[in-house]
Amino acid sequence: MNYDYEMRTKDKHTKQDAIQSYIDDPSDANRRTLNALGIKDRQVKEAKIQQERTAKERAKNGRPNTNGKNRSSQHKKEVKRETLLSATDDEE
Predict the structure, then answer these.
(1) Which residues lie closer than 8 Å to 20 by C-beta, 6 or more apart?
(2) How many whole angstroms separate alpha carbon 21 and alpha carbon 43?
(3) Between the N and C ends of the chain, which has fewer C-beta atoms within 10 Å?
(4) For residues 54 and 13, what is the distance between their CA atoms, to the nearest angstrom?
(5) Are 49 and 64 in contact (CB under 8 A)?
């Protein structure tokens, strides 16, 4: 196999194991391991959510929204467009 592929796979498994260890036991030692590997809180939060979901839910819903931002701005834009269109229709 390719050396680069093996190293990336090894790093990936190491990070997954560290995240799982922290989820099982959120101790200071596990937190330091996460920090040393460069794993963000968002990744841990996402892993917790993914574990709680079934395979069908994960396939249907995709990745969970863990950034804390809601997407209401898009909805507000759509409502504003509708009001503009309805205002022009009322005038006619």
Answers:
(1) 47
(2) 13
(3) C
(4) 21
(5) yes
Confidence (pLDDT) at 75: 58
For residue 73, the number of C-alpha atoms closer than 13 Å in the C-beta half-sphere is 2
Q: Of how many residues is the chain composed?
A: 92
- Write the pLDDT tens digit of every residue in 3-20: 999 999 999 999 999 999
Q: Which amino acid is at 91?
A: E
| Residue 51 backbone zone (phi > 0: left; psi -120 to 50: alpha; other: beta) | alpha
Tokens of 67: 């950034």
Spell 22-36 as b/e; 16+ CB within 10 A means b.
Answer: beeeeeeebeebbee
With contact defined as beta carbons under 8 Å apart, do 50 and 26 qualify? no
pTM of the model: 0.59
CA–CA distance, 65 with 79 (Å, rounded to integer): 23
